[in-house]
């Protein structure tokens, strides 16, 4: 019988969790992200620090997954609007297929909606594209 996992979802500051996020990136994507790339993308992005939603296993304290988004500006009907680009959805292999990705996407969408963000977009890999289309009422361009 599979043990039910007790999760906690919260937004985290990428500066405070740099090492954990870099380790999770390597584990999730099976490649390393250069520290200077991480600092630019997550911490010192010209449009602001990346927002990062995280899911933690409350029983073990393990960071099970994260999903980030960073601010962008688009012109919509003649006005500049703030949108967010989704990036780096990561779930530890042993926590996959437990609804973590979907929960992260729900939390992100809730935050963006509550903050008046018109839309969000991303460049999904094959693993996340079907989940995003199914849950997020998304379409491919």
Walk me through the topology.
Layout: E1 7-12, H1 18-29, H2 35-43, E2 51-57, E3 63-76, E4 79-91, H3 100-114, E5 120-122, H4 126-136
Parallel strand pairs: 4-5
Antiparallel strand pairs: 1-2, 2-3, 3-4
Helix pairs in contact: 3-4
Summarize it:
The protein is of the alpha+beta class and 141 residues long. The chain is built from four helices and five strands, in the order E-H-H-E-E-E-H-E-H. Helix content is 33%, strand content 30%.
| Stretches with pLDDT under 50, minimum 5 residues | none
Inertia-based shape = globular
Main sheet properties = 5 strands, mixed
CATH superfamily (homologous) name: Gcn5-related N-acetyltransferase (GNAT)
List how many beta strands DSSP finds.
5
- The secondary-structure class comes to alpha+beta
Reported by name, the CATH topology is Aminopeptidase
The structural domain count equals 1
Question: What is the level-2 CATH architecture name?
Answer: 3-Layer(aba) Sandwich
Strand content: 25-35%
Work out the helicity level.
25-40%
* Total helical segments: 4
Read across the widest sheet, the strand sequence of neighbours is: 1-2-3-4-5
The helix-strand sequence is EHHEEEHEH
CATH class: Alpha Beta
What is the averaged pLDDT score? 86
- Please give the radius of gyration in angstroms: 15 Å
Distance between the termini: 42 Å
Structure overview:
The protein is α+β, with helices and mostly antiparallel strands and about 140 residues long. It has a single domain (about 10-135), classed as Aminopeptidase, CATH 3.40.630. About 35% of the residues lie in helices and about 30% in strands. It contains four helices and five strands, in the order βααβββαβα. It has helices at about 20-30, 35-45, 100-115, 125-135; strands at about 5-10, 50-55, 65-75, 80-90, 120. It has a five-stranded mixed beta sheet. A hairpin with a 2-residue loop joins strand 3 and strand 4. The mean pLDDT is about 85.
